[in-house]
């Protein structure tokens, strides 16, 4: 079956306003996420020549605030030694590498050079705040003579005063940990895995210490898998545990996924974050269809920057909490749209979306308890609250809460711009059992939606391809009444290439 | 949003011909699967009064061959002590329980009585080969004073000469193991979990020794979860390891799911199997929509009986192999339909399905290698082979192989009889990397399809609701040519209530 693109919007009309996307070409994993003391750097897997994966360079953008991104020249090229695959960047402030002039330091990137039969870890450093990099003459800095060994993440572990590298032995489903005093010589410390869901390949490990809400911290190891994620293709899972500078030990044999939908991959965290919780960015896509989504000139979108923490769930297991970096500076005037605070079963309310490329919705709603003594099969047994973004082309994006089973859905199946056998229509999440109240924080931005549920306890990220822009919002209560305690709808101001207008 | 049933076929037209379904009412988990020396028993969770979950009894059917099922009267009733939730049945041939007349033995059922605030394990025995059961006077035989403690599976462990019970501490995400010499007094031996993916509840554990193809055996623990499975709602995962009569120890910290789609739950194995590999049956459904699928009088379908073994994958990890119980006795005359052995890219071939309620397809196909030196983005980069079941109502069920990424899809999204936000349209599986050859064994039976890939290495099970019967089969090669080495299409004879015709 040939994928049927159908009637689609133009490249420009799908381009997000507050999510980073490449001007041209193909973008996948975020790389080298680092704050250099002045600004945020987003490097990324980049084919500058065509909107398809291949000929991988490190693209580059910088930002003062994680939303306003400035395009920068390609930072690391494909070379005869191979493509520049994923990796990380650290501030070598104290010149542990000895690569910088005495008394200075700077950004160091560690990444995989991928030749057809060899993947090894390379180092490059920058003396101009990350704009250009010089490759280390004795590269590779780490080579196990393997064809499947990639995506180094490096961070400084203060208690043991050394650099730690996490890197994927992809086909073996292991994460190897190495230590170094100078970023140049690496000694293996331990391995983790196979663990959780393995898929075909492990990729893009990220290990970091994450604050637990209310105090303390735990270590979290993120491992992306592709293909073979349970919803198909690529996805990122995580393990919570301890790290003593040598070995990561999970606190249980369970695994969890970062996202309940299927378009969030290769999550990476910024190093050298000045303040606040850890900040992550993921690639809003899935390898199953990322090269076939509607486009002529560019493909690839990064997620919103997300602040991450941990909190215990009702069974006292620590789960990931994700919330978007503060959006209030991006907000325009709140829409003058006030739904009724009380919505009876069968009622709905609708409002136009304010004119803007991107929109933010925040709301809290409690669904009535299931009436007692219903006859079996009475449809009163389902009490659902639904938020739709829709248009006059009979397209609708549906986000719904099935209150009596405490499950949420995200359904993009009634959008008409893209059809593909791997482009799954709907996703769902199990929320806290017996909890009929839900809070939703939704960001809709052209070809993307991100749904943060119950203050970040669950997150769903999905690409969207409406054939016509979604321009209305509807709330509906079905099967049971609902009480809204909070509702806000904001237009969000364009931040990516805003000075150029929407291109 | 109210689920939109659309135009649907009648209850009778969705009723499978070779899969067991209840004559009326609602059926979920298989229970008490046992061979009594003469015939196979299928008990099942059953509301005889309405096609909705509730008022749970044990329904019952018997079969000489796992395909021809004879309805039997309800075997275990709901009582004032609670509903008769899931459980198992064993042959107490040597009267270890002392419940049978001296020198005789018989079937013993162990199951959960579920009151609103208490779930405990009950025992009942049968002196008429499983038709009727007498509840033990000192029930419960196992009560931990818990509200979430259910689904006992019992088997005899020969090396330690005792009965073993596996039972779910559902909300705690643990499986507890108990031992007994007489089925009446139970002593806790160990616990397993939390492990793998937990969802909200663990349910329906099954532990058994499974042969490894080529010799030896390993123990496999199956744990169903609901809700919160990664594709939404309910699903069954498994762990491979060892069991010494006291403790199950997994051989790794990984988890795998039994099915790559989302309609296979509460898998249970037969006890006392006369010969051959272990035999399982699962419930072909998902708790997210099982009470809302198109029906007026009945809901619920069991999977095909499946013979199960283990085999190492390319990374030497043991994976589950599932193959349907021998279907050859059900076959009618093979369709006189021979696709070309060579199909060029862009070509397709079509044949009517032979007149029959159910159909079986077996085929092997190898997709051409990706041409070298293609320009990026050339659609030659995807080589796909697609099998469609379709009709003149523009409905199609699509099963496709994306050869260059070695992934399979199963897409029911273009059938028009049922739409529901949780009724996910498509599913996929990652197959052996770099393997461009695939074998498919497909059974299409009215409202169900089961796809066995590469001789049982992957299995996908899905409910289907076409608005009009699917009556044609089409093969297509897209992006790359394909060579068919094998193709067979059989009508399958009705086996369930065949004497009554299709009711």
From TrEMBL, chains A, B:
The record ties this protein, via SUPFAM superfamilies, to:
Arabinanase/levansucrase/invertase, Concanavalin A-like lectins/glucanases
UniProt-listed SMART domains:
Glyco_32
| Acyltransferase is among the record's keywords | no
Q: What are its GO biological-process terms? A: sucrose catabolic process
Glycosyl hydrolase family 32 N-terminal domain location: 19-324
Region of interest called Disordered, as start-end residue ranges on this chain: 328-349
Give GO cellular component annotations, separated by semicolons.
cytoplasm
Per UniProt, the keywords (alphabetical) are: Glycosidase, Hydrolase
Q: Where does the record place the Glycosyl hydrolase family 32 C-terminal domain? A: 356-489
Q: What does the record give under GO molecular function?
A: sucrose alpha-glucosidase activity
Gene3D superfamilies xrefs = Exo-inulinase, domain 1, Glycosyl hydrolase domain, family 43
InterPro entries, per the entry: ConA-like_dom_sf, Glyco_hydro_32, Glyco_hydro_32_AS, Glyco_hydro_32_C, Glyco_hydro_32_N, Glyco_hydro_beta-prop_sf
Q: Which family does it belong to?
A: Belongs to the glycosyl hydrolase 32 family.
State the PANTHER family in the record: EXOINULINASE INUD (AFU_ORTHOLOGUE AFUA_5G00480), INVERTASE-RELATED
Q: What is this protein called?
A: Levanase
């Amino acid at each position: 079956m040939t994928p049927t693109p159908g009637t689609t919007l133009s490249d420009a009309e799908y381009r997000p306003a507050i999510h980073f996307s490449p001007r041209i070409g193909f973008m996948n994993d975020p790389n080298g996420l680092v704050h250099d003391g002045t600004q945020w750097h987003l490097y990324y897997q980049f084919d500058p020549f065509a909107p398809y994966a291949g000929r991988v360079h490190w693209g580059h953008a910088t930002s003062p605030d994680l939303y306003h991104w400035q395009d920068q020249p390609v930072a690391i090229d494909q070379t005869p030694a191979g493509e520049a695959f994923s990796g990380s960047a650290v501030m070598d402030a104290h010149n542990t590498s000895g690569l910088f002039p005495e008394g200075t330091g700077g950004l160091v990137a560690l990444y995989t050079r991928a030749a057809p039969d060899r993947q090894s870890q390379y180092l490059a450093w920058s003396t101009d705040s990350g704009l250009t990099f010089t490759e280390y003459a004795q590269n590779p800095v780490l080579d196990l003579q393997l064809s499947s060994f990639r995506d180094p993440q490096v961070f400084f572990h203060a208690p043991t005063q050394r650099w730690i590298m996490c890197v994927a032995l992809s086909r073996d489903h292991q994460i190897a940990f190495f230590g170094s005093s100078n970023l140049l010589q690496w000694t293996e410390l331990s391995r983790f895995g196979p663990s959780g869901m393995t898929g075909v390949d492990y990729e893009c490990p990220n290990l970091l210490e994450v604050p637990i809400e209310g105090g303390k911290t735990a270590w979290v190891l993120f491992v992306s898998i592709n293909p073979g994620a349970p919803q198909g293709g690529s996805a990122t899972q995580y393990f919570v545990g301890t790290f003593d500078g040598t070995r990561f030990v999970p606190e249980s044999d369970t695994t969890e996924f970062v996202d309940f939908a299927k378009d969030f991959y290769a999550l990476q965290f910024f190093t050298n974050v000045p303040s606040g919780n850890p900040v992550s960015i993921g690639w809003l896509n899935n390898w199953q269809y990322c090269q076939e989504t509607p486009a002529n000139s560019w493909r690839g979108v990064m997620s919103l920057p997300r602040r991450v923490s941990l909190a215990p769930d009702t069974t006292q297991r620590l789960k990931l909490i994700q919330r978007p970096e503060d959006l209030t500076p991006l907000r325009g005037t709140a829409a003058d749209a006030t739904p009724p605070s009380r919505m009876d079963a069968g009622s709905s309310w609708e409002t136009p979306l304010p004119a803007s490329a991107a929109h933010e919705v925040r709301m809290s709603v409690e669904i009535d308890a299931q009436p007692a003594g219903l006859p079996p099969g009475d449809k009163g047994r389902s009490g659902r609250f639904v938020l739709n973004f829709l248009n006059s082309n009979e397209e609708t994006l549906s986000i719904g809460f099935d209150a009596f089973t405490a499950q949420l859905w995200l359904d993009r199946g009634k959008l008409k711009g893209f059809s593909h056998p791997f482009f799954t229509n709907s996703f769902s999440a199990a929320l806290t059992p017996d909890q009929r109240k839900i809070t939703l924080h939704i960001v809709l931005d052209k070809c993307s939606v991100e749904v943060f549920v119950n203050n970040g306890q669950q997150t769903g990220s999905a690409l969207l391809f409406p054939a016509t822009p979604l321009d209305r919002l509807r709330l509906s209560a079905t099967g049971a009444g609902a009480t809204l305690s909070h509702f806000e709808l904001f237009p969000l101001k364009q931040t990516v290439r805003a000075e150029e207008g929407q291109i």
